[in-house]
Amino acid sequence: MTFSSSLTDQNPTLVLDASVIINLLATGHSHAILRALNAPLIVTDNVVREIERGAATGRSDFDLLKRTLNDQILRLERIDGDILKDFFDLVSGSTSDTLGDGEAATLALAHGRQFIAAIDEKKATRIAAERFGTLKLVTTVDILAHEAVRSCLGAERLAEAIFDALRRARMQVREYQFDWVAHTIGAARVEACPSLRKLARRKPAIPQD
């Protein structure tokens, strides 16, 4: 089963949203995955604060994120200057057309600096397409399907990483990504992931290896 990751640029600069970071941390292999990309990786302070607030609910993501920042795998940046205008535009207006601070900062910074935004939420993807037509977006699945990541982890660890992101962080999977994810983790694991069951019902049975 082949799948072409949208992350094809050589050494792209990525701005990672909270959802993507949480998914990658849930894999248990976030350091290896991020290092394998061999690219500048940025997180905004808005996203860091969002994940820190989640720590109050008992999630361990913030401690793992701090370790990643301390190890200089991720670079922290604040939005300022002209980028702030795009940020405020994204957080202002009707609920259907606005985003949270973390998502807005991720998109505004990526657009303003001509970087790539790594973000999973469908609403954010829609708004980005409407407002920033030239902005390139990738998802967590694109990162996990990147050739360098697949080579680094190997088939067995990759399957475990994807399953853990699905099980622990409820990673979103788009319909066009489902076949590759299902083939990689196997039918039994698909059944164990509530987030995949709706997609699975639309597809033929997954063949057992």
Q: TL;DR?
A:
The protein has 209 residues and is an alpha/beta fold. It has two domains: 14-141, 3-Layer(aba) Sandwich (Rossmann fold); 154-201, no CATH class.
Q: What low-confidence regions span 5 or more consecutive residues with pLDDT below 50?
A: none
Total helices: the number is 12
Q: Write the CATH homologous superfamily of the largest domain.
A: 5'-nuclease
Rg: 17 Å
CATH class of the largest domain: Alpha Beta
Helicity range of the residues?
A: 55-70%
Work out the strand percent.
5-15%
Task: Please describe what this structure looks like.
- By secondary structure, this protein is of the alpha/beta class.
- The chain has 2 domains: 14-141, 3-Layer(aba) Sandwich (Rossmann fold); 154-201, no CATH class.
- It contains 12 helices and 5 strands.
- The radius of gyration is 17 Å and the shape is globular.
- The model has no long low-confidence stretch (mean pLDDT 91).
Structure keywords:
single chain; 209 residues; alpha/beta; Rossmann fold; five-stranded parallel beta sheet; 12 helices; 58% helix
List the helices and strands and how they pair.
Layout: E1 14-16, H1 18-26, H2 30-37, E2 41-44, H3 45-55, H4 61-70, E3 75-77, H5 83-91, H6 101-113, E4 116-118, H7 122-131, E5 137-138, H8 140-144, H9 147-169, H10 175-185, H11 187-191, H12 194-201
Parallel strand pairs: 1-2, 1-4, 2-3, 4-5
Helix pairs in contact: 1-9, 2-9, 3-4, 3-6, 5-6
